[in-house]
Amino acid sequence: MTKKVFGKLLGLFVLLLVFHTVVMEFVFRGMVAQTAGNTLHVLGRQALWSGLIALLVALPLAAWVASRVSERLGRVVAFARRVADGDLTARLPHEGESELSAMEAALNQTAERLDRNFAELESRRQELAAMLDSMQEAVFVITPEGYVRWSNAVMQRIAGTQFRPGRPLVHSARDPELLACVNAALEKQELQYGRTTSLAPGKSFEINAAPLPSGGALVVLHDVTRVEAAERIRRDFIANVSHELRTPLTSIQGYVETLIEDPDASPELAREFLGVILKNATRMHRLTEDLLALASVESPDYKLASRPVRASDLVHDVIASLSVVAEDMDIALEMTGAPEVMVMADPDAITQVFSNLIENSFKYAPEGKRIEAGARELTNEVQFTVRDFGPGIASEHLERIFERFYRVDKARSRESGGTGLGLAIVKRIVQAHGGRVWVESELGAGASFHFTLKKSN
Q1: Of 36, 66, 199, 363, which cross-links 416 as Cys (Cβ 3.0–4.6 Å)?
Q2: Long-range contacts: 23-27, Cβ < 8 Å, 24+?
Q3: CA separation for the pair 306, 353 (Å, rounded)
Q4: d(CA 450, CA 385)
Q5: Contact (CB, 8 A) for 192 and 181
Q6: Which of 159-173, 194-208, 223-237, 403-417 has the lowest average pLDDT?
Q7: In which element (H, E) is residue 288 found?
């Protein structure tokens, strides 16, 4: 560019010399034509006037050329400032084939390339942010000074609005385990593990804090609340099953050992012992059957053979199948009515639901009382009900009564041969049908168990 400008100025200077020569030619011709006897001072005065005329013509031309160059350089400076401020859409107008035009075109290409690169980086940043926000884990980045640099949506939901970029971590998450793990990762520059239960109420998190090559740390919080709950349920389930099996097994073992040690026991005593053994063996058999049934309905492979069934038929069939048992227990099993509406159901599975609910009522219905079973039509579903008139259930038990092995009266349930799994099986089967199940009760006023099934289209 410097050579080009210098060339233009040199050309302008040559033009001025040519112009001065032409002027001098006309002046000298005039001088010769007027007189040949002019003195030397006349010649000098004429030369001075010719130089002044040439200078007056050259100054505007030089000013015009300089203003054009200065204007284009000013546009380049303004362009550079816009790019420096982050405006990558700035462009320079360029025309002609001069070196300034080539420079302007090159600067435009550079700005376009930077614009594309930044757009691509922004697109990738947004994709990465969307991926991190869609994760189940909470993720955030800490600067070497201990400030929050970035966090995904999960972390913001857990910690609240106070957890935001620019705030110190110690002010954003007041959790000792988390702070200790992050500080250790920053100081030792090693991957650190931890666990916290106080970051969010009722939640447990595993902490992974990894140092970053550029400084700071990347922290990932994995929610293990459900895993720990499932593990706790598994441990409780095994403990309950072991307890339920140990009691009848201990009884069977004791009576068998007594019979072995006393081979001359009277037939009446032997028959009594064998009756106890049979009762406990039957209890173990029922427990095994209920465990298999519960495992079946909780399995992901559990499939229902649903078909349109009349609601009244479901109620009538279960009453017919259990009426003999009710008579033997001196309990009246009555049907309170059911609509002639078709529902989508697996008849065998719903029969098991009704059987479990009615057999559960047998345990608490007083002798000489009655149990009612019926159904009523709702807007999009049918509500089935089994009601007894026993002692009722206290309110603190209503929320947990459908849990596995949960008993309101443990001694009475075991005495009647209950396994504590019947209502849990009921809940799983009804939920598999897409229905709801609940209980309503007051002490001294009996209990009503309800479940719903969807109507058939």
Answers
A1: 363
A2: 23/50, 23/53, 23/54, 24/50
A3: 14
A4: 5
A5: yes
A6: 403-417
A7: helix 267-298
Dig out the tokens for 136 from the structure.
Answer: 């189940």
Average pLDDT taken over every residue of the chain: 78
Q: Tokens at residue 17, please? A: 């010399």
Which residues partner with 386 through β-bridges?
373, 449
Write the single-letter amino acid at 235. R
Element at 147 (helix H, strand E): none
Count Cα neighbours of 173 within 13 Å in the Cβ-side half-sphere: 31
Q: CA-to-CA distance for 446 and 371, rounded, in angstroms?
A: 10
Question: pLDDT by residue (tens digit) across 313-346?
Answer: 999 988 888 888 888 888 888 888 888 899 999 9
Q: What is the pLDDT of residue 127?
A: 67
Give residue-wise pLDDT tens across range 262-321: 877 788 888 888 888 888 888 888 888 878 887 788 777 788 888 999 999 999 988 888
* d(C-alpha 356, C-alpha 370), whole Å: 16
Which residues, 6 or more positions from 33, have their beta carbon under 8 angstroms from its beta carbon? none
Contacts of residue 280, defined as CB under 8 A and 6 or more positions apart, other chains included, come to: 247, 248, 249, 251, 252
Eight-class DSSP state of 408 = S
List 449's β-bridge partners, or say none: 386, 439
SS3 content of the chain, % helix, strand, coil (to 5): 60, 15, 25
3-state secondary structure at position 143: coil
Q: What sign results for the dihedral spanned by CA atoms 259, 262, 264, 269?
A: negative
Q: What is the pLDDT of residue 112?
A: 75
d(CA 326, CA 335): 13
Q: How remote is the C-alpha of 120 from its chain's centroid?
A: 26
* Cα end-to-end distance, the chain, whole Å: 84
Cα–Cα distance between 118 and 395 in angstroms, integer? 63
188: CB partners within 8 A, 6+ apart: 211
Q: Residue 271, exposed/middle/buried by CB under 10 A (0-12, 13-18, 19+)?
A: exposed
- All residues at 6 or more sequence positions from 277 whose CB lies less than 8 Å from its CB, including other chains: 251, 252, 255, 256
Q: How many residues does the chain have?
A: 457
Q: Are 443 and 374 in contact (CB under 8 A)?
A: no
Beta strands in 155-305 (DSSP E): 192-196, 205-211, 217-223
pLDDT value for 65: 64
Cβ neighbours around 177 below 10 Å, total? 15
Cβ count near 172 (within 10 Å) = 22
